[in-house]
Design a protein that fits this description.
The chain has about 350 residues and is an alpha+beta fold. About 25% of the residues lie in helices and about 35% in strands. The protein has helices at about 45-55, 95-105, 110-125, 140-150, 170-185, 200-205, 220-225, 230-235, and strands at about 5-15, 20-30, 35-40, 60-65, 70, 80-85, 160, 190-195, 205-210, 215-220, 240-250, 255, 260, 270-280, 285, 295-300, 305-310, 315-320, 330-335, 340-345. Strand 1 and strand 2 form a beta hairpin. It is globular, with a radius of gyration of 24 Å. The chain starts with 5 loop residues before the first strand and ends with a strand.
């Protein structure tokens, strides 16, 4: 990660409301043209962090640097950022065109330039024929597109998005995930995105920042976060996992659920308590006579693209995702290749 690509840096940021500390010594940098997602459960501090970047909240302590300049004393309207909220905050008395043009008119830009920019934004959000429509006549997805166009028309260097897809239905939300990522790549600006939806984060992000209780748990690209979770919280929050208490016998050998498994991890010491993580899709269902473990199928759910089966081996109930269904009551074998076993330090 190249130093001169850093656009925003948060240094030792703390934020308290009364006696409650909601951000605890946050250190993070955001690069130019990056799609970075702040991900975590409600109350973890991700929206507060976004508001501090936007200037809507001041940190209790710490610095917000924009290309090296401290922005804490700078008001929101003087920062090179715009924000899209979950509640789109469109002006009901203005049509689509005038909603998008609002910020440009405040800057007293000439009419020809305003018209050119608004038309370009309408084309970007695929709503070229909607300029004269009342915003009240638009669907939720269309209103969301107009809110994004209104933010982008001012050509911010950074766009802050606070759960902007939360009010949409599942199908439209998935469509808009792809649209937003496409817009970001076309425009080449930095997106800072807040969500509690891990699938949304995995789909769109260059970088994911996983948060819990005001503390950053892990930073990385989607594949790294998914494949190499730093702790049990990240493993459980990003996708589904089987998390087992285990003992690291020695490098590349771990014991869990009454069985010894070869793995590819090391450096934990010998006979060390650890947690073992295995994703449900990484467990192979095989014949009872050839499995590393044997168990009984206790439940089966059809999930659309796969079946989710719970298999009880006597010492642990494994969650398994497979395209092949085994009926409840079937005795099966389970096999896991070393590469698909991830070892983490035992949390205190």
């Amino acid at each position: 990660m190249v130093e001169d690509m850093r656009l925003i840096e948060l240094k030792n940021i703390r934020k308290s409301f009364d006696d409650t500390e909601v951000l605890k010594d946050i250190n993070l940098y955001i690069r130019k043209k990056e799609f970075i997602t702040l991900l975590g459960p409600s109350g973890c501090g991700k929206t507060t962090m976004l508001r501090i970047i936007g200037g809507f909240e001041a940190p209790t302590s710490g610095q917000v640097l924009f290309e090296g300049k401290d922005m804490v004393p700078v008001p929101p309207y003087k920062r090179r950022v715009n924000t899209v909220f979950q509640k789109y905050a469109l002006f009901p008395h203005l049509n689509v065109f005038d909603n998008i043009a609002f910020g440009l008119k405040l800057k007293k830009m000439n009419k020809a330039e305003i018209a050119s920019r608004v038309e370009r934004m309408l084309k970007l959000v695929k709503m070229e024929d909607y300029g004269k429509r009342s915003v009240d006549a638009l669907s939720g997805g269309q209103q969301q597109r107009i809110a994004i166009a209104r933010a982008l028309v001012n050509e911010p260097e950074v766009l802050l998005l606070d759960e902007p897809l939360g009010a949409l239905d599942l199908k439209l939300r998935k469509e808009m995930q792809l649209e937003l990522k496409s817009m970001q790549q076309q425009l080449g600006i930095t997106f800072v995105y807040v969500t509690h939806d891990q699938e949304e984060a995995l789909t769109m992000s260059d970088t994911i920042v996983v948060m819990k209780d005001g503390v950053i748990q892990q930073i990385g690209d989607p594949k790294h976060i998914y494949d190499e979770p730093k702790n049990a919280f990240v493993a459980d929050f990003i996708g589904e996992s089987n998390i087992l208490p285990a003992t690291m016998i020695k490098d590349e050998l771990v014991e869990a659920a009454g069985c010894r498994f070869s793995c590819v991890d090391g450096g934990f010491g010998e006979m060390a308590p650890v947690d073992m993580v295995v994703r449900p899709e990484d467990i192979m269902v095989v014949g009872e006579d050839v499995g590393m473990l044997t168990g009984e199928v206790k439940s089966v759910l059809f999930k659309g693209v796969h079946y989710e089966m719970m298999v009880d081996t006597g010492t642990f109930v494994w969650k398994i995702h497979s395209t092949t269904m085994q009926p409840v009551g079937t005795k099966v074998g389970l096999s896991i290749v070393p590469f698909n076993i991830h070892i983490m330090k035992k949390e205190a």
